[in-house]
Amino acid sequence: MKIPGFSRIEEIESKFNISIPKEEKKKLKRVVEKHPMFIPDYYANLINWEDPKDPIKNIIFPSLDELNVSGSYDTSGEKENTVLTGLQHKYRETALLLVTNRCAGYCRHCFRKRLVGIPTDETLKLFDAALEYIKGHPEITNVLISGGDPLVLPTDVIEYFLGELSKVPHLKFIRFGSRVPVFYPMRIYEDEKLLDVFSKYSKPERRVYLVTHFNHPREVTREARKAVDSLIRSGVPVSNQTVLLKNVNDSPETLAGLMKELTSAGVIPYYVFQCRPVKRVKSHFQVPLKKGYEIVEKAKQMLDGHAKRFKYIMSHKTGKIEIVGIIGNEIYLKYHQCKNPKKVGKLFKRILTPNAGWLDDLKPVNREEVFV
Ligand code: SF4
């Protein structure tokens, strides 16, 4: 699928009449050589190019901060959870398929930066082999089709995935992880065939869901609302995962504004993710946990119950850890999901320092830290 957009810095300069100093441009090109830039036309028009601090620009336009390589390219342990090329099985009930390395736009904060938009051997090669694995594991109740972005694939391919997965009796639901409603919403509401496919396979007995990724209230445009509405009318509930990002949505007002826009559009707030300590992302985007918790709680004070159904989560290699609370210099955490199912629901605490951004930065309080 060809998506109109910009992959060269010069194209942005000429289209939006901006000029980047020569030295800076040289360095930005080094960044883009490592991790490609692609800004869909539609999304580029949401940016105020005259504002150097524009939050939408920060999401998608490369930055010199990406030259900082502290962190890791696999913060969630994806390699160790890969059971077949392109198939991960971390949590008992969920199989994760990486079906493509392409996206409708490349987010600078992507936690799969190691593979999006660049040659990779991590995406699915043999769908049939993945299907056999899923069929052979009756504990798997749901499949998350991700990538990259699966909605950049042809509709026929999406239909094939849904058709085959729908034949697996123990699958209760199928999810797509997609940022297309944000980057290229017309791909959804202009493709009647895609909507027919969703209607065909999203049934009362086995629902198809779409989990999307809005980060800022300005992304919830008329077009994005139309895409969400088309999905809902096709029987596909839409939920949202936001990443808490420095200089994008790291204020209670912005976060609360986003949740209000999402709920008014019919999108269910699902997670606010702590930004992972990914190479070329961590120093650019990660908000310390202490500050992040304050932002999230202040945002919740501005919201009704419906809009604050999300959890503030750290997607750690051991599991999804909910950031439950802070008292003094202690942070309280809980395994919302865990590789080890026995730990799901376990509450524990760690010593919090002002700049800590990840579980690994937190010191244990004592050896009995898991106390429930
Ligand atoms: S759309 Fe998703 S997978 Fe693609 S670059 Fe953005 S965060 Fe990464």
Automatic annotation (TrEMBL):
Organism: Balnearium lithotrophicum
The organism's place on the tree of life at top rank: Bacteria
Radical SAM core domain residues: 89-309
Cofactors, names only: [4Fe-4S] cluster; pyridoxal 5'-phosphate
Binding-site residues, [4Fe-4S] cluster: C103, C107, C110
Family: Belongs to the radical SAM superfamily. KamA family.
CDD domains: Radical_SAM
InterPro entries, per database record: Aldolase_TIM, Lys_aminomutase/Glu_NH3_mut, rSAM, rSAM_sf
Record has NAD as a keyword: no
Protein name: KamA family protein
UniProt keywords, alphabetically: 4Fe-4S, Iron, Iron-sulfur, Metal-binding, Pyridoxal phosphate, S-adenosyl-L-methionine
GO MF term list: 4 iron, 4 sulfur cluster binding; catalytic activity; metal ion binding
